[in-house]
């Protein structure tokens, strides 16, 4: 108690002392006057609003670059400098500055006039490669790089702290930057572009594909942008026709595994990139023009090499006509003007210019490319003429068959047979065909003729004579006044209702006119523009006739109804050039001719099994194909046939198919992306109708003498895993499959659209997005 009392007294004394001190001015504890305000501090930099920059993207195409000629000095012998801005797309689709780049590579090439007498008149020169300094130059945050087991100096890249997404690069090492070529022509057209590395998605994974800038074509001396370099004769659009489209780039080039453009490829694939002696001996060529010619002709290397070379180039089959130069050269006439031996040898592999062997009947020795134009610069030996460029389209109406009438008579009532008589106007070389003309002499195959079939109320067709011509235009036919007439007996049941009439005839042509394919003795003639191996298809507009009532209404075939068609014939021709080319001696140019054989009511197939390459050979070196157990097809509907062939689910009964699967079920031979429906189908096509069935209205497919449902039959044509589990899934969705095919074509609609219609979670538009 005493201790606490003393502490209290001490506290009171201390409080009194403090109070007396505070009141020393006599104002009894009032506040003093405010002091002088201090100097305000410097305001901090406001933080960037959320979402104003991005450091990751969903795909390579979501990164773009802004580069101006005034901001770069990458040519000649001056001081290297570069400035660019990177932009990225946010998950919400907004384009904002892209931050955090740590490595890019720079490419610089120049158009150079070639005066050597060999090679293309204009050539691309890679300014690093021509100095032996690689093909590009790296820029990193440290000024050094380590890539593919190599290390070295790089330009030093810095992101502007005050302007996110803006980067500058300088060369801080001794000597000139690798892409600075002191012998460069600064008044020539230059191409510059970049590639960014280590770009990630939101989950930290590297985005697939190369992250490339657009190309900057300009003249360094003036900074002027160049719209036409005079050298880009193949555009990316031409390549996309076969290789597919991915964000405006080529979707599939097997050698590089991602998208590229021919305008970029020439950065490395140019005359400065020469193969080694060993590679030359094997047939390797790296210069873009000759290399692409050889690849597409299947001649890039010696036959059947092993290893990587064979895997990439050994067995390529071009889907169109090699001689149709404008299939790829769709940007100018350089294919006619730039004549040099190395490019020609891509296809003409049997020509030896040093000895003259194979070079015309005179065995001309060619010592330099300057001589090429002496013969091939113009006239009958020019590329356009000797390659018949564009002639199929130009000659389309040289042989035209236009059905006029289709009538039925009953010569012997009660015998169950009636006679169909068909007349057609035939025009050859712009004039009615003359009386007495032997049409067989002009035809590449004399078994072709008039295609005729029934059309039911749903627009489904059934050919009168199966997969052959219904009525001949040669045997038994009469010609009078340009009108061909012929007759044939069919059953009473066949000659009712609406029938379609068209034709498939292929003829020979030369110098812009239909000509005979063989002489009077039957010997095939040679030297034709379109001979027995490359015939010209007839034009045969589809015609409809009501056999019950000539004046009555007719039914339109479903494959002639635009509202029921999802395929795009123009896209097929974009890769194949023309349907005639891919169908041998068949004179077809349109699907309405194909439908005669390839329809849902032709219940048999010439290619019923599926075979794959086992990767082994027999004692004679022939490749061995094996059959996939239990996987068969018993119909030839166009949908299924086209899906099967292009997805490699075909047989090797007649010959090794152009597209096939190997022992690992990997697709070989198809130039595009196999699940890219838009490669053949119309853009934004709707495959399912409102009732869940197909847009085409097809509800049953004949297999043998019974019927299956069409959706599962179409799907399994591509999905080679059509095993028991897949079939069980099809059947759970209401599909009728071959093992339990129905005797009636009146089948229920499958439930596939419930999950797989466009817009659904597992819709074909999502599952097949390339």
UniProtKB/TrEMBL annotation:
Matching entries from InterPro entries are given as: Cyt_c-like_dom, Decahaem_cyt-c_OmcA/MtrC, Mtrc-MtrF-like_dom_II/IV, Multihaem_cyt_sf
Residues covered by region (Disordered): 26-52
Per its UniProt entry, which superkingdom is the organism in?
Bacteria
Has the keyword Heme been applied to this entry?
yes
Name of the protein in its database record: OmcA/MtrC family decaheme c-type cytochrome
Occurrences of domain Cytochrome c (ranges)? 353-447
Signal sequence: where?
A: 1-22
NCBIfam families for the chain: decahem_SO1788 (TIGR03507)
Keyword Magnesium listed? The answer is: no
- Which keywords does the record carry? Heme, Iron, Metal-binding, Signal
